[in-house]
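Example record

The entry below shows one chain as it appears in the dataset: sequence first, then structure tokens.
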Amino acid sequence: MAIGSYEKCKRYIDFHSPVETPPPKKSIYPCITISRETGSGAQAVCEELIKILDKNLKPDEDRWTYFDRTLIEKILEDHNLPKQISKYLQEDKYRHLTSAVNVLLGLHPSQWTLLHKTTETVLQLARMGKVIIVGRGASIITSKLNNVFHVRLVAPLENKVEYVMRQNKFSKANAEDFIKREDRSRKNYLTSNFNRNCEDPKLYHLIINTGLLSHTESAQLIAETVKRKFNNLFNH
């Protein structure tokens, strides 16, 4: 699954990066950012959403793509960063003191260098359009772009625990611990880097409770709302 997703991302980037002649000027398609609580089913929703958005595309049109963990590889590739520092791009952020010491020792780029490169890549992808970006503070980074639609996925704890247990083959206790750690890390990432709270409803066009709507229903709701908002791009 991970390899397949990465290959799709690579094809998407290659399509938008011609080697010789620039592509003809065209309308910028929407970008969708998804902020999520751990276990709310972001991957499942994204996969269903892409199926819906790709359904009526012409054979020669580029397809929708989503970036989540594969965004890390994209950043490393874009900026020629060594694979060893990929762990420092995780959303749980390393401690400032450890960061400063390691930078002085030349072990990895500074926190701000990585944040800048992440931000640069997210903006580049968003401007291409037909892309879904999960996490990485994308809703904040792209907040000034006119072609972006922001979604947050939430769910009751029992639903999230069940999802994480199923996806990762965790015990209930491990799933609960994993959810707490991941959500705390993501919240800290946005607070420390952007001084924003991921739970702020004003950051999003749409907040969906996947405990009340299935992943397919959630994807359908997002697709329908995006098509209505960007009506001129979906009806030509």
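Notes for this example: DSSP finds ten helices and five strands in the chain. The radius of gyration is 18 Å.
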